[in-house]
Every structure is written in structure tokens, then in C-alpha cells.
Amino acid sequence: MLLRSMFAQNYRSLRSIRMDLSGINLFIGENGVGKSNLYRALQLIQAATRGRLAHEIAAEGGMFSALWSGPRRDADGPFRIRLEAEVVDEERAITFRYRVEAGLRPAAAAAGFPFEPQIKAEELSIETGTRPVTMMKRAGPAISVRGPNGRMQDYPEQALTSETAIALLGDAGHYPEIGTFRRAVDGWRFFHGFRTDRLSPLRSPCLAVTAPLLDEDASNIAAVFATLAHTREDTVELDRAVAAALGGARLVVPLPEETASFGLSFPEFPNRVFQPRELSDGQIRFLGLAAALMSYRLPPLIALNEPEASLHPDMLPPLADMIAEAARSSQIWIVTHSEALAVAVREKCGARARHVVRQDGATWIEGMRLTGVIDDDE
């Protein structure tokens, strides 16, 4: 299931931007141009499928903080955050298109949560080679959905203003197309850096439970390594990446008992295993990235926000190697400040960096047309 394009409007610095996407999507730019807003807009699409869009917007300061604050025209219609995603099931040749709009509570509305983000509209359609077919549509609290007879019908339950219809119907279990799209997007993973303080989950043992992929807070990193070492019994690529990035170090993963743990052994101290609490911020962060990119079962999309943070420049080529390997089975989204990382990724994967800029106060991609296509020459 490939994310083929996305659209965001009126979200922070994203005035109106549509992008075609590929297997590896690398965004680079200066501070303040809105790179992280692109990442966050994608994350909000996932939040909508989980029924947490209003919660996520509220957590980042509410609608007044999240809405575009630049000039706008009355002809633009209702002032809402609008997010869209186009996801393609390449095996079955099905295209899913999802749109969600969130806005402010009407001034004359009855008592409730006056500053809570309001879900105003949603739509999910599918296309199988002919014309798009609407599977679900929501306007205000009313939802219509395509039933088993192929006709649109009113859903018996109205949505609360803070919940999304895609989550409500997905939980119902009666609409396979809606469930398929929701599961695909729910599988995306976003890694917005890793904590490296002494209480970081990266530095602590975890429950000894098989972990096919890394949690977004990396709290199961030790179980991810143990799954590779003792379930798959293959850590060749992981060992190569760790040795290349960390001066020949070797990852040590004991057989889990009540908890799973790991450590590093360095060539200059062959008889000592250094525990995670003893490692530097850069070392432990690289191990977190290794667990995210080399786990037993990779998610369909891996998004990394500034993965170069705290890493020594010598660690960037091994990081690019891991990205290239992960891209064989996952779609990759990277936001970075680092020209060195962009160059390394291009050398390993052939992926060109997309330069993010501010244009008339709004986030934009150099060389991109209004349709979202980026010219090869650019």
C-alpha cells in the first residue's frame, strides 16, 4: 500500500500544497521553512483514521494555533484545515482517496467544548480503473455509507463533532474497503527523534515479548533486537551497520528472561559489555534508528524527523545504508537539515532531496508545480 500523494491546506505554514510521492521522500531546508509541518500533516491523517485528529490538534495548541495565520480570501470558502491522502494498493490495482476537514466551532453553537476542533467533512472513495466510487461521506454529524447493495445509505449513528467517521465505521467491521484503508494508514510509523536522557526508554530493559517492529517511543528496542537475534536468528545486516557506525562495536543481545536487554562491546574493551545507560547520546540514538529501520517486520511507511540529530558525521553513511535497505520493503519519508545525509542517501538510493522553502510566507517545494509534480530537471 503506497502513499502516492498528499494534500494539506490551512495547516500552520501549509497554505495549500499538494505533492506526488515516491518510494523515498527526502525533504531538506533551513529552520522555520515548515519541513516539520509536512511531516506533522501526514501524521494527522493517521490520527484521523485512529479517531484522534481533534485530540492531536488540541494537544498542539488547538485550532487557533494550528490554522494558517497568513492572508486569505473570502473566495477560499470555509476556513478549515483540509488534509487528503491517496493510497494505492498496487497488488489489487485499487486507489483509495481520503479527505478530512476540521474547523472552528460556530459562535452560536450550544454549550460544549467551545475551543475543541470540529470535524466538518470527510470522504473516502476508491477507484479500480474506471471512475471513483464514494464509499463513505460525512457532512457535519451525518454520515452516509455504501451498503452491501451498492447504494449509499444513511448510517444509523451520528458522529460526535470530535470524532472521525473513518474511525467510527472502521470499528464497526461491516465495511471492508474502509477497514482496509484504515489498517494501511494505521501501520505507518513516525519517529520524531528519540529521548536520550538517563530515563529514556532506549536505556531501559523492556518486557520480554516478541517485537516485530519498533514502537514510536522506542520503549521496546531491547525486544526488537532480541527478536532479530533469537527469533529470526539473523543479525548480519544489523551487526554490519552497528560496526560501521560505532567504531567496530558489536551488539550484545542476551537471551531474554523476564526482561529483554542489550549492550555494546567495543574492540578496545573486548571483555566488557557497555550497558545502554553508559552509551553516548549519539550512540544510543543510532541504535534507535537501527531498530526502526531493521526490525523483523517493517511498517509500510517509516517517517523520520531529523534523524541526524546528535549523530557524528561518520554515522551518516551507515544510516544511509540502513535507509536504502529499509526502502526495499517500506516507503520512506525523511525530514532533515543535513546536506551530508541528503548526499549519502542520494548516493545509496538515487533519491533526490526536495528543497523546502518559504514562498510568500507559505511552505513550498522548489521546482514543484501546483499539481504536485516536481520536474526532473529541478
TrEMBL record:
GO molecular function: ATP binding; ATP hydrolysis activity
SUPFAM superfamilies documented for this protein: P-loop containing nucleoside triphosphate hydrolases
Matching InterPro entries: AAA_GajA/Old/RecF-like, ATPase_AAA_core, P-loop_NTPase, RecF-like
Gene source species: Rhizobium grahamii CCGE 502
Biological process, per Gene Ontology: DNA synthesis involved in DNA repair; double-strand break repair
Pfam families the UniProt entry points to: AAA_15, AAA_21
Record-given protein name: ATPase
Domain ATPase AAA-type core, first and last residues per copy: 187-341
Highest taxon listed in the record's lineage: Bacteria
Domain Endonuclease GajA/Old nuclease/RecF-like AAA: 1-45
